[in-house]
């Protein structure tokens, strides 16, 4: 089945992989699937040796507790950085604390605090980024992301800087979609007004998968072609290759390419970066994303010149944030969505299960045992808004989201 289009939090891509359900912090175009296999170990290496290691550990409910990055130092792995995550009652990230390794101990570096507010069908996620200076947290940047939760589409992104006394405009992204092309227009705040900077246009096929992305620069009077990214995708819409071309009038010229291979669950298990030089593709260094069932993770290269850069990933099985549920027993679906009077719940692992409906604050508003695989629940008494359905038994738990209109 083709992935549905989901434009999501580019500004939060650094933590997108830690969330499995709810309002997504995931990367654009990759809508979380029923099964989410989160990586717990990623090795990155060049043609000579291992260079970098990233490891995730999970909480008992399946959310990411810690992410640690290490690099090779002589014959051993040496800590470089780590992120520690905190969550609310519905497993949405509230805080990420980043630390660096120095003199044999972890020291604070940065903190991201996330606040979600809902007004009707509009969700606003605010991320405040702080730096650790002189033993205290100091404001640095603020990101405000607004989206229409009924269509999972982004409305705008705003970036502000802290000038010592107040937040001031820095940059913003405006979004538009005409059914086949998703456009992100990036603007910067100068001379007390918004000025065009660049724009990215994603052209989609009938199934909502990316065919290519055109990157254009504003030259002061018009948009000028700069680069283009060509996609080939697997049947579920995840990239098998992404080829970058550069515009050198009068034609597009190949520049770099990234190729991926996947397991049966749409997790990229390895990838490589190549450069087009002297009419052939050669191993090279470059930045790659790690795509997995549910989103992608930015993976930034280390500077090892003229060596092929690759990754290999090892995955810990997760399902809707919960580990070790058997395939085929753990599907949970809620229809229709949005719903007005009734929702139909389908949960094959219903035996011994209880279903709970939570509001956006994490409060249980309805609860009952599941006596059969398909159950109908009357929700006419609930106020309009976003709700989460959670079903589970001794084997594990599953979660889904719906909107009451």
Annotation keywords:
405 residues, mainly beta, Lipocalin, Immunoglobulin-like, 63% strand, globular
How would you describe this structure to a colleague?
It is a single chain. With 405 residues, the chain is mainly β. The protein folds into two domains: 10-117 and 195-323, Lipocalin, CATH 2.40.128; 333-404, Immunoglobulin-like (Sandwich). Helix content is 0%, strand content 63%. The chain is built from no helices and 29 strands. It is globular. The protein starts with 35 loop residues before the first strand and ends with a strand.
Concise summary:
This protein is an all-beta fold and 405 residues long. It is 0% helix and 63% strand. The strands form four sheets. It has an 18-stranded antiparallel barrel. The protein has a four-stranded antiparallel beta sheet with strand order 26-25-28-29, with no helix packed on it. Strands 23-24-27 form a three-stranded antiparallel beta sheet, with no helix packed on it.
């Amino acid at each position: 089945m083709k992935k549905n289009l989901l434009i999501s939090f580019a500004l939060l891509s650094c933590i997108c992989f830690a969330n499995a359900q709810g309002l997504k912090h995931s990367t654009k175009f990759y809508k979380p699937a029923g099964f989410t296999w989160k990586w717990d170990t990623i090795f990155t290496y060049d043609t000579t040796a291992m260079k970098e290691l990233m490891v995730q550990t999970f909480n008992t409910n399946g959310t990411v507790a810690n992410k640690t990055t290490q690099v090779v130092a002589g014959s051993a792995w040496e800590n470089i950085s780590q992120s520690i995550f905190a969550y609310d009652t519905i497993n949405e990230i509230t805080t990420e604390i980043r630390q660096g390794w120095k003199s044999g101990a972890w020291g604070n570096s940065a903190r991201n605090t996330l606040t979600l507010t809902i007004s009707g069908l509009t969700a606003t996620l605010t991320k405040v980024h702080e730096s650790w200076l002189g033993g205290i947290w100091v404001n640095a940047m603020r990101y405000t992301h607004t989206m229409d939760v009924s269509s999972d589409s982004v409305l705008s992104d705003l970036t502000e800087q802290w000038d010592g006394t107040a937040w001031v405009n820095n940059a913003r992204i405006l979004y538009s979609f005409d059914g086949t092309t998703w456009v992100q227009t990036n603007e910067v705040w100068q001379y007390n007004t918004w000025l065009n900077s660049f724009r990215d246009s994603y052209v989609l096929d009938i199934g909502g998968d990316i065919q290519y992305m055109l990157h254009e620069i504003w030259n002061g009077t018009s948009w000028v072609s700069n680069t283009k990214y060509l996609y080939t995708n697997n049947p579920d819409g995840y990239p098998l290759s992404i080829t970058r071309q550069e515009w050198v009038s009068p034609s597009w010229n190949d520049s770099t390419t990234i190729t991926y291979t996947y397991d049966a669950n749409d997790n990229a298990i390895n990838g490589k970066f190549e450069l087009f030089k002297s009419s052939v593709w050669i191993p090279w260094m470059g930045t790659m994303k790690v795509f997995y069932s549910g989103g992608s993770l930015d993976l930034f290269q280390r500077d090892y010149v003229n060596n092929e850069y690759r990754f290999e990933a090892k995955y810990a099985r997760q399902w809707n944030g919960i580990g070790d549920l058997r395939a085929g027993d753990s599907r949970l679906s809620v229809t229709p969505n949005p719903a007005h009077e009734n929702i139909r719940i389908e949960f094959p692992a219903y035996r011994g299960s209880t279903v709970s409906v939570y509001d956006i604050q994490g409060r249980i508003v309805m609860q009952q045992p599941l006596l059969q695989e398909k159950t109908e629940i009357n929700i006419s008494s609930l106020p309009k808004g976003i709700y989460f359905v959670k079903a589970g038994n001794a084997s594990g738990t599953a979660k889904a989201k719906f909107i009451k209109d």
